[in-house]
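Severity: low
Component: inverse-folding endpoint
Summary: output formatting inconsistent between runs
Steps to reproduce: submit the following structure tokens with default settings.
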């Protein structure tokens, strides 16, 4: 997992910490960027584990960093948290044979 600051001033480690504070305790969040492969994209992966069914569910939300460059870190956190909450309200899809469901770019 790579934490760094993207050119758009999205601070990934800070975003991860801020999202962790806003999500339910049964959620795990990963915030990643891959500057060598896709320098302008970062992803937020949210996972849950359902004890009753022994099911891992999750979703990968990719973001184009440059679309967010005019926002403050707080605005980015609020907007990303709102998108994550929508996914949680819908219910995260179970992990499939090819991994977690990946949504379209935001």
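Observed output (run 2 of 3):
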């Amino acid at each position: 997992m790579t934490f760094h600051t993207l050119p758009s001033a999205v601070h990934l480690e800070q975003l991860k910490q801020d999202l962790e504070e806003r999500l339910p305790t049964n959620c795990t969040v990963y915030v990643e960027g891959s500057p060598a492969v896709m320098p302008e994209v970062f992803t937020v992966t949210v996972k849950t584990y359902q004890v009753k069914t022994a099911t891992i569910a999750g979703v990968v939300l990719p973001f184009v960093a440059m679309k967010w460059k005019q926002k403050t870190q707080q605005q980015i956190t609020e907007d990303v948290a709102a998108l994550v909450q929508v996914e949680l309200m819908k219910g995260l899809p179970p992990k499939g044979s090819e991994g977690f469901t990946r949504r379209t770019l935001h």
